[in-house]
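Ticket #4471: structure export looks truncated?
Reporter: QA, pipeline team
Priority: medium

Steps to reproduce: submit the single chain below to the structure queue and open the exported record.
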Amino acid sequence: MTTYLDQTATNRMQRARQLTRGRTDVWHLWEHPEETDEAVLYAVGGALLEYVATHVTPAQFRALLQDQRAEMHRSWLAPVVAAFEHELAQPK
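Actual output as written to the record:
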C-alpha cells in the first residue's frame, strides 16, 4: 500500500516491468512473498494496486484493502489480475 501512496512521480508499471522483465505470476507473489525479492514485491504490489484502483469499483477496492488475503478476492479479481499481467508483459 505504501508504494501505491508514496506520492512520487514514479511510473509504477514501468518500474515493475524493469524488475520482472515483464513476466510475473501475481498470485504466486501474493501467496508466497517470501520467495521473491522485496524490491520486486514492492514494485509489482504498487503497480498492481494502482491498476486495480482504476479497474474495479470503489467498494471492491475498499474490500481488498480491508482484507488482503488472495483467497478472499480471487473469484472477482482474477480477470483484473490477468489483464494486469498482460499489461506488465507489454514492452513500453
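Status: closed, not a bug. The export was complete when the record was re-opened. Leaving a note from the reviewer for reference: The mean pLDDT is 89.
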